[in-house]
Amino acid sequence: MLYYKTQEEIELIRESSLLVSKTLAEVAKHIRVGITTLYLDKLAEEFIRDHGGVPAFLDYNGFPNSLCVSVNSQVVHGIPNDAELKDGDICSVDCGVLKNGFYGDSAFTFPIGEVKNETLRLLEITKESLYKGIEKAVAGSRLGDVSAAIQQHAESNGYSVVRELVGHGIGRNLHEKPEVPNYGKRGSGMVLKEGLVIAIEPMINLGGKAVIHEHDGWTVRTADNKPSAHFEHTVAIRKNKADILSTFDYIEEALKENKIKVIN
Ligand code: MG
Ligand code: MG
Q: Quick one: CA torsion of 28, 160, 169, 186, rounded to 10 degrees?
C-alpha cells in the first residue's frame, strides 16, 4: 500500500522532520571527544519531548533508545552506550520523531576531533550521494533513478553501497512502502508521483559492501571493520524539484560554532 500525502499532511511531516533536524543540531552542539553517546541520546530525548514530539525509535521493535548512534565501522542501528567518543572517530546519528501523528527521519555523520582525510572524504561523498539521489526524486522519475544516482556517485568515487538496508516511505508510519535502495538501475522501479514522501538514506562503506549483525540484535557493522557513513533526509516528491522536509542547516551552523569542520 502506497500512501500519497496531501499538502496539509506534508506540512505536518515537515514539522516533524524539522524537529529531527533541530534535535540533530543539539547533538552537533555537544558532540566532541570524551562525550558518551548515551549523553547525546538523553539530550536528544529531552529536546524532542520539550518540543512536543515523541522519540520515534524508542521502543520501536524494542529498540532501547531515542537515537541510533553508529561509530566508525558501525553502519546503522548502533545502541547508545557509556563509551566515550575518541579523537578520529566518525559518528552517525540517526533520529526520528513522531509529532501530530506524523513521522520525520534524518541522519548525519559527524567527524570527532582530527579525522583522517580519507575518512572525511567518505563523509563528503556519502552526503553528496544523498543529494544526487534527491535530485532524481521528482514526479515522473522512477525509483531506480534515485537508487542508481546514489550508487553511481558512491562507486565512481571508489566506495561501496550497503545492500541490506534501504530508505523507505514515511508518514503516519515510520517505515512505509516503497523501499528505497541505494543501488539499482536507471529506468527501473515504480514511477514517482507527487505526494509520495520518502526517506533517502545512503549507507556507504570505505571498504567492501558486506555487513554483519552484532550480537546485540541491532547494530549493523562492516564485515571488514572499515568505516561507514550515513546521511538521510525526508523528502516529498514534487514536479520539478524534491521538497526536502528535513535540513542540515541547523546542524552545520551548530558545527561551525562547535568549531567542527563542515563537510561540503
Ligand atoms: Mg533514520
Ligand atoms: Mg530512515
A: 130
**Residues, CB within 5 angstroms of ligand 1 (ion):** 94, 105, 107, 232
Is 223 strand, coil or helix?
coil
Ligand closest to CA 108: 1
Please report which ligand is nearest the Cα atom of 180: 2
* Structural domains for the chain: 7-257 (3.90.230.10)
CA–CA dist 252, 199 (Å, integer): 20
Measured in Å, residue 30 CA sits from the centre of ligand 1 at 20
Residue 110 C-alpha cell reads as 559527524
Please give the distance, rounded to the nearest whole angstrom, from the Cα atom of residue 113 to the centre of ligand 2.
27
Q: Cα separation of 194 and 186, whole Å?
A: 19
The DSSP-derived string for 147-211 is HHHHHHHHHHTT-EE-SS--EEE-SSSSSEEEEE-SS--TT-SPBP-TT-EEEE--EEESS-S-E
Ligand index nearest the alpha carbon of residue 77: 1
pLDDT in tens, the chain (264 residues): 899 999 999 999 999 999 999 999 999 999 999 999 999 999 999 999 999 999 999 999 999 999 999 999 999 999 999 999 999 999 999 999 999 999 999 999 999 999 999 999 999 999 999 999 999 999 999 999 999 999 999 999 999 999 999 999 999 999 999 999 999 999 999 999 999 999 999 999 999 999 999 999 999 999 999 999 999 999 999 999 999 999 999 999 999 988 776 665
pTM metric for this prediction: 0.97
Grid cell digits, residue 31: 558532540
Instruction: Kindly give the distance from the C-alpha atom of residue 8 to the centroid of ligand 1, in angstroms, as a whole number.
Output: 23
